[in-house]
Design brief:
The protein is an alpha/beta fold. The protein is built from eight helices and twelve strands. It starts with a strand and ends with a strand.
C-alpha cells in the first residue's frame, strides 16, 4: 500500500518537482495550500507531513498540540524543510516543536526520500495494528482503509463495523453480537440500524469485477468474506 504524504511547499517549482518525483517513487501526494494543512491532516490522515512552509515551526507546534476538535494530527510524523537562511538554532527549535526530522536547503532529493522512508519505518504501527481481508487493508492507528490500493473514506460506524468483521473475515458474526459490540445495544429488537450500515459499507467497498464483501448470512448475521 503506497504511503500517503501531505506536502506543503510555497515555492511552485519546488512543489511541482517534489510532487512529480515522489509520485514516481510510489508515494501518494496530497498538496496543501497556505492554511489548509491542519484541515487536510485531519481529513486525509496521511502517513507523513512534509513541511516546506516558512511557517513550518508554527504548523508543527499546532499539529503536536492538537487544535480544538482535532486529535489525530498529534501523532503524524513530520519532516521540516528549512529555509535558505536556516541555521543550527532553527534545527534545534524544529525538534523542540516536535518534528521527526529536519533537512536544510538546498537539499538533495535522494537524501530527502531516504529520510522519509526512514521516518516511516520508525513510526510504522506494529503488524498487529493492521488488518487485511482480500484486497482490503486497514491501518487501525490512522483509521486508513484501502481496497486494492484505493483509499476508501468511511463514516465512524461503518468503519467500526468493518474492523469488527475484519478481525475474523470468514466468521459469521450474529446480528446481536454486532449490535452489542459496535453500537452498544443490549438487544437488537426490530432495528434496521445494522442492515442499513452493512448495505452502505458493502457499496463503498465494492469495486467493478472485485470480490463481494459484507455478506448477509440469512437469519444469522454478517461475514466480511464468504467461502
Amino acid at each position: 500500500m503506497p504511503s500517503a504524504l501531505l506536502l506543503t511547499e510555497p515555492e511552485e517549482a519546488t512543489r511541482s518537482f517534489l510532487e512529480r518525483h515522489l509520485i514516481q517513487d510510489g508515494f501518494d501526494v496530497v498538496e496543501a495550500e497556505n492554511g489548509e494543512a491542519l484541515d487536510l491532516v485531519e481529513l486525509a490522515r496521511p502517513d507523513l507531513v512534509l513541511i516546506g512552509d516558512p511557517e513550518g515551526l508554527e504548523l508543527c507546534r499546532r499539529l503536536r498540540e492538537g487544535p480544538p476538535g482535532r486529535s489525530w494530527g498529534r501523532v503524524v510524523p513530520v519532516i521540516l524543510l528549512g529555509t535558505q537562511e536556516s541555521d543550527p538554532v532553527d534545527r534545534v527549535r524544529a525538534f523542540d516543536r516536535g518534528c521527526d526530522d529536519y533537512l536544510d536547503r538546498p537539499f538533495h532529493y535522494d537524501e530527502l526520500v531516504a529520510r522519509i522512508r526512514a521516518v516511516l519505518r520508525r513510526t510504522a504501527p506494529p503488524e498487529s495494528e493492521r488488518l487485511t481481508a482480500g484486497e482490503i487493508e486497514i491501518d487501525r492507528p490512522t483509521r486508513r482503509v484501502t481496497v486494492g490500493g484505493e483509499r476508501v473514506m468511511l463514516p465512524t460506524k461503518e468503519y467500526e463495523l468493518l474492523v469488527k468483521l475484519a478481525t475474523d473475515p470468514q466468521r459469521v458474526f450474529t446480528k446481536d453480537e454486532l449490535l452489542r459490540e459496535v453500537w452498544g445495544f443490549r438487544s437488537h429488537g426490530r432495528t434496521r440500524t445494522l442492515d442499513s450500515h452493512a448495505s452502505r459499507l458493502r457499496r463503498r467497498l465494492t469495486r467493478p469485477g472485485g470480490a463481494s464483501y459484507v455478506q448477509n448470512v440469512w437469519g444469522v448475521g454478517y461475514c466480511l468474506l464468504g467461502d
